[in-house]
Amino acid sequence: MKTKLKQFLSDIDENIVVADGFDNAFVGLANTKDGIVAVYQIDLVAVELMEDKGMTIEEAEEYIDFNISSAYVGPRTPLFLNYIPKEFWNGFSIEDIQ
Residue 73: in which H helix or E strand, if any? Predict the structure, then answer.
């Protein structure tokens, strides 16, 4: 049975690869040289793992590092985004790191 996300994405391009179980972490699409890929937000993936699998944040981060971020399932492998809020970088200048 297709989830709403899988149905939505297959209507756009049936070759988009999804990260099963992480629909709530889906944030958009990206165009690559190989085609359109799904984009997921890493911290929302961690939340899903903690809520659904009962993992601690440390366990979720380790799971993501070894099983998700480093996974390659072909040229249409989903991207995983580390979201940086505007509040973090707003007002940042190169002089801050020199």
Answer: none
